[in-house]
Amino acid sequence: MMMNRRAVLQKITALALISSVTTRALAATPSKIGIIGAGTVAQTLGSLLVKAGHPVMFSARHIEEAQSAASALGSLASAGTPQNAATFGDIVLLAVPYKALPSVGQELAPLLRGKTLIDPTNAYWFRDGSLAAKADAQGIGRLSQSFFPGAYLVRAFNSIDMSVLGAEAARPAPLLAIPIAGDQPEAVHTVQSLAQEMGFDPVLTGNLATATLFQSGHPGFEVKEDRAGLKRALGL
């Protein structure tokens, strides 16, 4: 009899917790997120954002690619051109090769002024050539920001493989930690909140200059740890 009562109490507690989580999720205000790209990075992060309740718009030069990315994610996902996505998003996420950033900036920077711009890109010498060397010399955060004057650029989601992010999101505690860097406090807070909703533990490293800590070839790159482990790797 005692075991039955205990089981009933456990079920009631579990239902209360589920109800509490659901209530908080419904109370959160969704943000429209435009994604510049429709490949692996776009699909991985876009899927996690949709699961968190945010409407997303994928974009590509060839609209069919964006439509394919959106089709599997239900009514919260849509497709458009890069201009459409930049206009649609309260927040915009860059999901293109690093070598494309200068041209993307020339085309879309006027549409992104005053918006939070999430940059999960990485610069690699074998693909991005001299731009990768420039990112290493100047710091990738500062260089990325230079292509998008007026946008509030935040570096995040770049330091760990998309396959790992997709598999480890919302894992049992301790959560997977991801580093974040940015200059504008409100934009940084926005991205921290998104990361938490997606199932990660965001660790703020500081301003955009500190994004060097977790760019390719630096100590925080490909660190798959909880908060304490990531902070040790970053020297924080």
From TrEMBL:
Residues 1-27 form the signal peptide. InterPro entries: NAD(P)-bd_dom_sf, P5C_Rdtase_cat_N, STEAP_metalloreductase. The keyword Plastid does not apply. Residues 32-122 form the Pyrroline-5-carboxylate reductase catalytic N-terminal domain. The keyword Protein transport does not apply. This is Oxidoreductase. Keywords: Oxidoreductase, Signal. It holds the Pfam family F420_oxidored. Gene3D superfamilies: NAD(P)-binding Rossmann-like Domain.
